C-alpha cells in the first residue's frame, strides 16, 4: 500500500510518498512560493540525484499537479500510475479543543 501525505501551507506544499509494505519513503519534496514570484520545486528519491527546478505555480492546484506528474514521470517518478496510491493524508491544523490528535476527516468532523 502506498500513501501520499501532503502538508499544504499558504504558499507551499510538502509531500512524502510512503510504501507501507516496508515503511519506506519512496519520494519526498516540496513546492515553495506558490502564487509568489520565484517559485521552485524540489523532489527527492532515495538513491537518486535530487530534482530541482525554478517554476512559477499560480496556485495550489498547479502545484499539486506538478507533484503528481513528477511522481509518475518516466525520468523522476517512482510509480507507474496514480492508481498505485491507496490513500492520501493531509495535515490539518487548528483542531482546537475538539481534536487533540489524528482523526479521519468524515462528515461528522
Question: What are its keywords?
Answer:
mainly beta
Largest sheet: 6 strands, mixed
Question: Ranges with pLDDT <50 over ≥5 residues?
Answer: none
C-alpha end-to-end distance: 25 Å
Rg from C-alpha positions?
15 Å
Structural class: mainly beta
Question: What share of residues are in beta strands?
Answer: 35-45%
User: Helix coverage percent of residues?
Assistant: 10-25%
Order of strands side by side in the largest beta sheet?
Answer: 5-4-3-2-1-6
Polypeptide structure, described:
This protein is mainly beta and 109 residues long. Helices cover 11% and strands 36% of the residues. It is built from one helix and six strands; from the N terminus they run E-E-E-E-E-H-E. A hairpin with a 4-residue loop joins strand 2 (12-19) and strand 3 (24-32). The model has no long low-confidence stretch (mean pLDDT 93).
Tell me briefly what this model is:
This protein has one helix spanning 60-71; strands at 2-8, 12-19, 24-32, 40-44, 51-54, 85-90.
Give the topology, please:
Layout lengths: L1 E7 L3 E8 L4 E9 L7 E5 L6 E4 L5 H12 L13 E6 L19
